[in-house]
């Protein structure tokens, strides 16, 4: 670890528009009220003219904004994480998140590589088969560990398994024509994490957002990559079914939440700070 690194920065991915909606203004107010002591960055397109109090700007190409797929490409790019390499951690804070206290350094001190609100099986997220952490909209990420994933020389897919699945049952002439593919898969730079990440947004199975990669696949490339448990994730933040999460978290409010206007807004409204809070 670089001893000159700062501990943590708050990173706010923006849209390609400069005006905040009323709900985004609430989220931003929670950020500035509770986490005012930390460096804060807006991640914005090169072409966007924006200025929010207390925030510096990190600019990236316009192609990384305007859709979920574009955001996924940005947060699966090595350039993004290298741009924050002066910090040990970043807290990704989308403007549909809230925090309710300043626990940020304490969460960094857990040493975990990735923490976010758990995905749990419930009416809000029936697609979840196995509860796990979790959503990236409010998430703590350890920069050094994320960069290790990009540098990993572990294969995306085992070369011989790839060959058996794709070509073993094909006619001999097809196998012969595709022999270069068999050998290419043995070259790490043609079969690595970067290549999988570059195609992640094209996945057809509903797990094509960037947070699914960090939750489910990063450990494939770096076996000691540590993702928070569901229990720890619930203490960090809720997303879906906040009343159920509140029960699961022993009737304790978490550090924060994500998608508060979307999932049971009425649960969160008593915890919203006054519009005129300092």
SSE order = EHEEHHEEHEEEEHHHHHHHHEHEH
Largest pleated sheet: 6 strands, mixed
Quantity of strands, as a count? 11
Query: Structural class, please?
Result: alpha/beta
Oligomer: single chain
pLDDT averaged residue by residue: 91
Can you tell me the overall shape? globular
Integer-rounded radius of gyration: 20 Å
Features:
single chain, 278 residues, six-stranded mixed beta sheet, three-stranded mixed beta sheet, 14 helices
Describe the protein.
With 278 residues, the protein is of the alpha/beta class. Helix content is 35%, strand content 17%. It is built from 14 helices and eleven strands. The protein has helices at residues 22-34, 68-75, 78-82, 104-108, 143-151, 159-167, 172-177, 179-184, 193-199, 210-216, 218-221, 230-236, 242-248, 265-268; strands at residues 6-13, 39-45, 56-60, 87-93, 97-99, 114-115, 118-119, 132-133, 138-142, 237-238, 256-258. The strands form three sheets. The chain has a six-stranded mixed β-sheet with strand order 3-2-1-4-9-6. The chain is globular, with a radius of gyration of 20 Å. The two termini are 36 Å apart. The mean pLDDT is 91.
């Amino acid at each position: 670890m670089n001893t000159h690194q700062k501990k943590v920065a708050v990173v706010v991915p923006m849209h390609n528009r400069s005006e905040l909606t009323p709900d985004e203004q609430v989220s931003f107010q929670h950020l500035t009220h509770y986490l005012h002591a930390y460096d804060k960055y807006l991640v914005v397109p090169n072409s966007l003219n924006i200025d929010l109090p207390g925030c510096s700007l990190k600019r990236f190409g316009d192609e990384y904004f305007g859709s979920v797929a574009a955001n996924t490409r940005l947060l699966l790019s090595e350039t993004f994480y290298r741009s924050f390499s002066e910090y040990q951690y970043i807290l990704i804070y989308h403007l549909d998140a809230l925090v309710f206290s300043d626990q940020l350094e304490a969460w960094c001190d857990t040493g975990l590589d990735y923490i976010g609100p758990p995905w749990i099986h419930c009416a809000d997220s029936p697609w979840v088969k196995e509860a796990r952490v979790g959503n990236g909209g409010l998430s703590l990420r350890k920069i050094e560990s994320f960069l290790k994933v990009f540098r990993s020389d572990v294969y995306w897919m085992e070369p011989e398994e790839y060959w058996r699945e794709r070509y073993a049952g094909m006619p001999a002439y097809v196998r012969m024509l595709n022999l270069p593919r068999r050998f290419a898969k043995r070259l790490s730079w043609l079969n690595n994490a970067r290549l999988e990440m570059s195609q992640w947004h094209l996945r057809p199975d509903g797990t094509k957002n960037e947070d699914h990669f960090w939750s489910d696949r990063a450990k494939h490339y770096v076996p000691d990559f540590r993702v928070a448990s569901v229990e720890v994730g619930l203490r960090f933040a809720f997303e879906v079914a906040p009343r159920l999460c509140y029960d699961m978290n022993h009737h304790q409010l978490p550090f924060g939440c994500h998608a508060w206007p979307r999932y049971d807004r009425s649960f969160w409204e008593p915890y919203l700070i006054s519009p005129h809070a300092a």
